[in-house]
Structure formats: structure tokens, C-alpha cells
Amino acid sequence: MAEGESPATDDARPVDAELDFDILPQLMGYQMRRAQVRIFLDFTETMQTIQITPGQFGALALISANPGLTQSALARAIGIERSTMVAVIDTLEGRGLVERRPSPVDRRSYALVLSRDGKALLEQLRPLVRGHEDRIADRLSGEERRLLIDLLRRVSDGSD
Asked: Mean pLDDT throughout 10-19?
């Protein structure tokens, strides 16, 4: 064996050898997870100076479009546990982006609205998110992009 070489074993593969991914490339879940990682990395880089997560952006957009929404309704719309949503709203409220107001229809819950700063930030975020989406979909035609969104929607919510 030459100096600097490591002993060969049946399990050893050169680091730069192409890996055999077995069944993984044919699995929807594997491909969706890889795409999700790429999407989240680009989103994080895009929002680096603003410090907004994809979940926080989603919450801001839904509250903007549905002023007075309750935390429970928002959690259901996003698809997360209510306790997780409380933490998201606490963070957004702490940053002065969201306000909790007494619900006019249920004294046990709060109506969520964007603050003036929240509205201004959302207007700043929208073009950044659109640019992020364009980068992610840069290898897709407009029709392919629409089809992908439709297919993902059907997989995620079970609708046709």
C-alpha cells in the first residue's frame, strides 16, 4: 500500500464516487424533501437581513388577507398545531408586526390584525418572495410552474 492510502474495504468508496441512491430518486417524498431544503435555503438567504421565516411570512400574508382571523383559524389554515401558532404570533407581536385584539364574536379568543409596521413589512416582503419563487422555478416554464403548484396542492390537501 502506498503512503497516504487507506486500506480498501468492501464498504469503502472514494469520496468523489457517484452514489447509488437506490429507490430514493423515484420517491415523491424524497424529491419533495430535497426541493423543500433548496427552497428553504434560498428563502432564508433572501430574508437574511429581515429575519422572517417562511411560516412567519405565511402568517403575515394570511392575517393581511383575513383581518380579525383567530389564532386557531390561522393554525388550521397553515396546518400547524395551535400551540406552535401561539409562539409564531408571540414572535410577530414582539416585533410589532401583529396585534391581538379582543374578538368581537368570542371573548375567549383574539382577532389578529397587522400593525402599520406589519403592513409595511409585508409590502416589502412580497417582491422579495416573488423573486425567490422565480429563482426556485427558473428551470420551469410558466405552464410547468402552474402544473407543479397544482400537483403539490392536490398531494397536500387530497383534493382533485
From this structure: 69
